[in-house]
């Protein structure tokens, strides 16, 4: 069994989507002052490796805290746009940039989640039909193409959450 971390490291000054809040990490307590260490984080809900809820782009749609936990993990596969078929009943990830040219096929398959470098238009369309999306992933090229793996990407349980940073993990 191999465990592959697909997450970006959260650090002050890391890149964010234009207009999103900057990442700030401040030491709030030190061993010297409090006998423990504690950091204060200030981040947007779509910082780094994150999951998007349908409510992110569609008013009144499901929020993260309304979705069952089963929507954030499962058997998955990396696929290519040019693959003649994509498997049913799996989360699907793309190691290449993809856009709305994939939407019809994805809408037919209805995976619980889709991840990779997705165009904003594809993300909006997928969220519109209730498919959660994962972006900001790193290392998808380390996963086997055409072979199943288990994916885990649990969000924080944010009330009315439109998105959340995740620790995205593949288990092969």
From TrEMBL:
InterPro entries: KFase/CYL, KFase_sf. Gene3D superfamilies: Putative cyclase (3.50.30.50). One of its GO terms (biological process) is L-tryptophan catabolic process to kynurenine. It comes from the Bacteria. One of its GO terms (molecular function) is arylformamidase activity. This is Cyclase family protein. It comes from Paenibacillus arenilitoris.
